[in-house]
Amino acid sequence: MSANVIDVADPADPRLDDFRYLNSVDRRPDLPTGKGLVIAEGVLVVQRMLASRFRPRAMLGTDRRLGELEADLPGVEAPYYRVDADVMAQVVGFHLNRGVLASSSRPPELTAAQVLAGARTVAVLEGVNDHENLGSIFRNAAGLGVDGVLFGVGCADPLYRRAVRVSMGHALLVPYAWTECWPGDLELLRNNGFRLLAMTQDTSARTLPEAMADVAGAKAAILVGAEGPGLTEQAMRASDMRVRIPMSRGTDSLNVATAAALAFYERARLAD
Predict the structure, then answer these.
(1) How confident is the model at residue 250 (pLDDT cuts 50, 70, 90)?
(2) What is the arithmetic mean of pLDDT over 156-169?
(3) Is the pLDDT of residue 31 over 90?
(4) Residues paired with 124 in a beta bridge
(5) Euclidean distance between CA atoms 214 and 49, whole angstroms
(6) Residue 237 and residue 241: Cα distance in Å, rounded?
(7) Which pLDDT does position 85 carry in this prediction?
């Protein structure tokens, strides 16, 4: 089946409503309290949406981007509303360099048990409320062998447009779930055979290479906290081991996404 392409010349056409107000504070379509849509931006992110459990409702883009997506669209029922760049800018509210968007309704949330099933390495986040950090963590997780992500309290929405964009669409592919009781649900990890490693700046904690060598043959959950304060004491007490990244030149911490990436890499290197 060929792509369902519909040419649209009027920016006020109601069929394009999924893509309006993308930069609005209180009207953007990806607000869970509003339309609750998931917005994929750019060819690569749209391709990853098409490969995920997030089924597109509609796509909006230029003819050039349609050509780049041509091989991905056969069998996709969602319409591709083909517009020129000026119409797209009027609909979206700004000039979109990436030239294509896709919208999806939010599917039912996965449970923690579903995310943990078959997993060997998971990331557990507490208080990570910056969408760019969150998107980077998903991208790092996808590239460095992390099987899933669990959210504790205080985390940002992983399906916010910026988080999805920064993740390069991996927020749609790496399975995640929200915990219901924090930090009590960490016991679910332990009951599923995971060793819980809490990342910290504490100089008395075990170094990252030592800790990852210790759990090389076991399931591992890597806990990271908010930028600045890090994990709460309650989360660290619920963990099996406190882990630090050896630092030099008077630096005491790294960006949370960078710290997570180092932990993911060391885990992958020693778990192979």
Answers:
(1) low
(2) 96
(3) no
(4) 150, 223
(5) 37
(6) 9
(7) 95
pTM over 0.85: yes
The position carrying tokens 């910026």 is: 162
Neighbours of 191 (CB within 10 A): 9
* The one-letter amino acid at 133: N
SS (H, E, C) the chain: CCCCEEECCCCCCHHHHHHCCCCCCCCCCCCCCCCCEEEEECHHHHHHHHCCCCCEEEEEECHHHHHHHHHHCCCCCCCEEECCHHHHHHHHCCCCCCCEEEEEECCCCCCHHHHHCCCCEEEEECCCCCHHHHHHHHHHHHHCCCCEEEECCCCCCCCCHHHHHHCCCHHHCCCEEECCCCCCCHHHHHHCCEEEEEECCCCCCEEHHHHHHHCCCCEEEEEECECCCECCHHHHHCCCEEEECCCCCCCCCCCHHHHHHHHHHHHHHHHC
107-129 pLDDT, tens digit per residue, is 999 999 999 999 999 999 999 99
Structure tokens at 38: 């998931």
Which position has the token pair 């490693």?
197
Peptide bond into 183 cis (omega under 30): yes
Q: What tokens were used for 20?
A: 């309006």
Phi, psi of 53 (to 5 degrees): -80, 0
